[in-house]
Design a protein that fits this description.
The complex is a heterodimer of chains A (322) and B (248). By secondary structure, chain A is an alpha/beta fold. Chain A contains eight helices and 18 strands. Bound molecules: flavin-adenine dinucleotide (FAD) and adenosine monophosphate (AMP). Chain A: FAD binds at residues 207, 263-270, 284.
């Protein structure tokens, strides 16, 4: 009757989202009086999971399952659910986890609540608080099916250390023929760059920057902070920046610790997608820009003067605190 | 090729969100409803398949009579026929079960849904349909090309994109990128007139489970005022982010 967490990895290492999902699963398991099992794909050394309250890990090592394939992964996880008699499955909010959420819900006839932002209100019945209306509201939702699936919002519950004794088991899910019929033929991903989904800090710029040639300072600022870069919708619509950087209600959601908005007015659709970020900073020439109402810190000023100074001050700060 | 576009009827992106006094329902007073933006991108891509490859395009919505203006708009944009499943869309599993039934009976080759509805941000309906019908599924789809039975799809991944090959029947969870913002169409007079003549079939729901229910709602706590730092004193911002906000 355990809680199962899908712990995502990249290049054989668990992602931060996996640590957060495991921390959440541990909280749910404690409330239910049970333990946490994890399932992972292509990870050799799983010992790190013992820091986040996982008691048992099902290791999938098949070569065919090293790279993400939604249908195959969902089937494998569903297999683990049946094998372990799992009642609650915990996922993260990564793009891959959200891909799996619906599939698993259909396969297991299990209610799925994504974007969960806090520990459960109660576990019997299971009621959780989740984001709705693109962060303009929250719903407290009860799942009424026997098996239940939760998707934990990025950065909302946090990573919590809980030491546990970890046992390992190799798990070879039985997969139907044809399960790999949707095939990956190419992955186009810049190696070593912080992604918006995983970043603690996101530096974002809008139409106030005037043109794509002015993004160098934004990239420099992101580099000093170890941040991901993002942009407003018109900036990606005009082709100044790639579509993948567009954040907001119709773009990528941002839930970082720090969000810096430069030359972005703060339209309601933009704010809806970034307001889950903990601390927001705005730099804008117009003191009436709506973003100032949504921000924690602000500078009324010209980005072309403020940003280079900010980069300089951050470099000094880093040198002092190194 | 027969295409079904699943349309969800959502509050306009500029809507202020309020809940009823007892906090148990979304208050629709004064709210303008529109085609879910992700579905509008999908519908526009479907129009391309219609015009360039001779596809037939139907749209389906699970909802009460109140969703018909939104469906008429989809017909005015160019869909051939509409199907309204006459039930309140109370939860994603129920909605997906209803749409799965329509898909099964309609013999569709391609089903276009959105990555998520911008109201409850469920992001689950296309995945559930894919599992219930055991058809191919590509989520966060930003590119789609079809030749005969063969499909080449691009999906957004964290930090980049992935190209996939698969085949029909297929369901996608689409988003911007399927078409560009500038490709979106505002219905013209002729489209609106023609939409009035098009069939909008109403079907009754089938028996299906409800997997969840929203008990109460609340709004984010109001924000305190912004702390302004002088543009000539940028170092102060660094100090505040370090010692007060503790984010660097
Ligand atoms: C259905 C729909 C969905 C949408 N979804 C999204 C979404 O997901 N994400 C999104 O971002 N938008 C979205 N939008 C668009 C949104 O309404 C705004 O148009 C957009 O966010 C504005 O982008 P911006 O702030 O970069 O540009 P602008 O609104 O033009 O703002 C530019 C800002 O830069 C400031 N500025 C100018 N010069 C300088 C300078 N030298 N230094 C500093 N500041 C300067 C200006 O004062 C201004 O505030 C959506 C719109 C619709 C209708
Ligand atoms: N009531 C509905 N009627 C028809 N399609 C829907 C409905 N709700 C959701 N969908 C489809 O499923 C997608 C994802 O919605 P959701 O899972 O609710 O976030 C939407 O973009 C629509 O394509």
């Amino acid at each position: 009757m355990s809680v199962l967490v899908y712990t995502e990895s990249e290049n054989g290492k668990f992602k931060k989202s996996a640590q957060e999902a495991a921390s959440y699963a541990y909280k749910v398991a404690q409330d239910m009086g049970t333990t946490v099992s994890a399932v992972c794909f292509g990870v050799e050394d799983t010992s790190a999971l013992g820091n986040y309250g996982v008691s048992k890990v099902l290791k999938v090592q098949a070569d065919s399952l090293k790279a993400f394939n939604a249908k195959a992964y969902a089937s494998a996880i569903a297999g683990a659910v049946k094998k372990e008699g799992v009642k609650v499955v915990v996922l993260s909010s990564s793009t891959d986890s959200k891909y799996l959420g619906g599939l698993l819900s259909g396969m297991l006839k299990a209610g799925y609540v994504p974007n969960v932002v806090a520990a459960p209100d109660s576990v019997s019945p299971l009621v959780v608080k989740r984001m709705a209306f693109s962060n303009k509201g929250f719903a407290h939702t009860e799942i009424t099916t026997d098996i239940k699936i939760l998707g934990v919002s990025n950065n909302a519950f946090g990573v919590h250390e809980n030491k546990s004794a970890l046992t390992e088991e190799n798990f070879s899910p039985s997969l139907e023929e044809g399960i790999f019929s949707t095939k990956s033929v190419n992955v186009d991903k810049v190696a070593g760059e912080v992604t918006i989904a995983d970043a603690d800090i996101v530096v974002s710029a809008g139409r106030g920057l005037k043109g794509p040639e002015n993004w160098e300072m934004i990239e420099d600022l992101a580099k000093v902070l170890g941040a991901a870069t993002a942009c407003s919708k018109p900036v990606s619509d005009m082709g100044w920046r790639p579509h993948g950087e567009h954040v907001g209600q119709t773009g990528k959601p941002v839930a970082s610790n720090l969000y810096i908005a430069i030359g972005i007015s703060g339209a309601i659709q933009h704010l809806a997608g970034v307001s889950a970020s903990k601390v927001k900073v705005v730099i804008n020439t117009d003191p009436e820009a709506p973003f100032f109402k949504a921000a924690d810190y602000g500078i009324v000023g010209d980005a072309f003067e403020v940003v280079p100074k900010l980069i300089e001050k951050l470099k000094e700060f880093k040198a002092q605190n190194a | 090729m027969k295409i079904l576009v699943c349309i969800s009827n959502v509050p306009d992106t500029t809507s202020k969100i309020n809940f009823t006094a007892d906090q148990t329902k979304f208050d629709t007073t004064g709210v303008q409803f529109v085609i879910n933006p992700n579905d509008e991108f999908g519908l526009t891509r479907a129009m391309w398949f219609k015009e360039k490859q001779g596809a037939t395009v139907h749209v389906a919505t699970v909802g009460g009579p109140g969703v018909e203006p939104t469906m008429r708009k989809a017909l005015a944009i160019g869909a051939d026929e509409g199907i309204r499943i006459n039930a309140e869309p109370t939860d994603g599993f129920f909605v997906a079960s209803q749409l799965a039934e329509v898909i099964k009976n309609g013999g569709y080759d391609l089903i276009i849904a959105g990555r998520e509805s911008i109201d409850y941000n469920g992001g689950m309906v296309p995945g559930i349909i894919a599992a219930l019908l055991d058809i191919h599924f590509v989520n966060t789809c930003i590119g789609l090309e079809i030749e005969g039975n063969k499909v080449k799809a691009v999906r957004e991944i964290d930090g980049g994109k992935e190209t996939l090959e698969t085949s029909l029947p297929l369901i996608i969870g689409g988003q911007k990128g399927l078409v560009e913002e500038s490709d979106l169409r505002i219905p013209n007079m002729r489209g609106i007139m023609m939409a009035r003549q098009k069939k909008l079939n109403v079907v009754e729901p089938v028996e299906a489970i409800h997997a969840m229910s929203d008990k109460t709602f609340d709004k984010p706590a109001p924000k305190g005022p912004v702390k302004l730092v002088d543009a000539d004193n940028v170092g102060e911002l660094v100090n505040l982010l370090h010692s007060e906000a503790k984010v660097i």
